[in-house]
Design goal:
The complex is a heterodimer. Chain A is of the alpha+beta class. Chain A contains five helices and six strands, in the order H-E-H-H-E-H-E-E-E-E-H. Classes of the chains: A alpha+beta, B mainly alpha.
Chain lengths: 158, 137
């Protein structure tokens, strides 16, 4: 009897966790229908299709090592000045709220690139933010991966 | 033998109202037994666990449904229906990430090389100093 109840409880916990685990970052979903914002979402299914294609390769970059573990890619970009300011503030807030860690920061000429990561048991994410005078771009890579997987992608470039 | 006993038993006078009293007593026992059966409940821990699990399930489902904002359906749709376009965009995004990470790592390697060079120079100077000290002692 006791074991049955424990099993049932575990099922409930797994169910709730799976309901909350999403293929993409929820905080960025609101930009899907925003004016002056380009929102791109590539699902795991589409990534799988792309991966099967022989042309899905870039010399020196090991795309497969990360693509296998991704559940989705979100790309949000805007050239509009006021939207860029809003995006900048929103992203800053949600990165702090969800405890993302700064992985890399690069300031080159007029372009600022910040890469953040959040490694979780259920879902991990790497967010790359590119901010310059013309455009603000957020690229979010979600899935179940480790930092090693991310770094392995660049090993062939050395 | 049995017949004799039966006959002897038949001769014993039955007290008045015994049958009624016995049947009332049996009814009473039956009622008590039923009550006792009803009272056998599961241990407190299990009851609380079951209640907690039910509450968690209801709240979890409710929260999940409420947190689904109006953009969710739109955001969950694949932007590209053409796998080729999706492939190009994914390739572009992943390459940009790899290139930027690599750039950062490149700077790190440069810094490490500079630090190694400085350390080497420092060691050389220290060795020279030691040699000078031993020569003059």
């Amino acid at each position: 009897m006791k074991q049955t109840i424990i099993k049932a409880l575990l099922c409930v916990v797994v169910l709730l966790c799976s309901l909350n685990a999403s293929a993409q970052i929820k905080a960025l979903e609101k930009y899907a229908d925003m004016k002056n914002v380009t929102y791109v979402f590539i699902s795991k299914y589409m990534l799988g299709m792309a991966e099967k294609n022989a042309a899905f390769s870039v010399p020196g970059v090991n795309l497969k090592v990360l693509t296998d573990k991704l559940s989705g890619i979100q790309i949000i970009s805007s050239e509009n000045r006021s939207v860029r300011t809003r995006l900048r503030n929103d992203v800053k807030a949600f990165l702090t709220k969800d405890k993302y860690e700064l992985m890399m920061q690069m300031n080159e000429d007029d372009n600022k690139v910040n890469i953040y990561h959040h490694i979780g048991k259920q879902q991990s994410a790497v967010i790359m933010i590119s901010d310059n005078d013309d455009e603000f771009v957020i690229m979010a890579f979600s899935g179940k991966f480790t930092m090693e997987d991310v770094m392995k992608m660049t090993l062939d470039l050395h | 033998m049995d017949e004799l006993d039966y006959k002897a038993l038949e001769q014993i006078p039955i007290p008045e109202g015994l049958e009624e009293r016995l049947s009332a007593k049996i009814d009473e026992w039956e009622k008590e037994e039923k009550k006792a059966k009803r009272r056998v409940l599961r241990p407190t821990f299990l009851r609380y666990t079951a209640v907690a699990a039910s509450i968690a399930l209801v709240f979890g489902l409710g929260y999940h449904l409420l947190s689904q904002d109006k953009y969710t359906n739109l955001a969950e749709q694949d932007t590209y229906q053409d796998p080729m376009m999706a492939q190009l965009e994914a390739q572009r995004a992943l390459t940009l990430l790899a290139a930027n990470l690599n750039k950062g790592m490149g700077h790190l390697e440069k810094a490490k090389a500079l630090s190694d060079k400085t350390e080497k120079r420092l060691n050389e100077q220290l060795n020279l100093l030691k040699r000078y000290e031993t020569d003059h002692h």
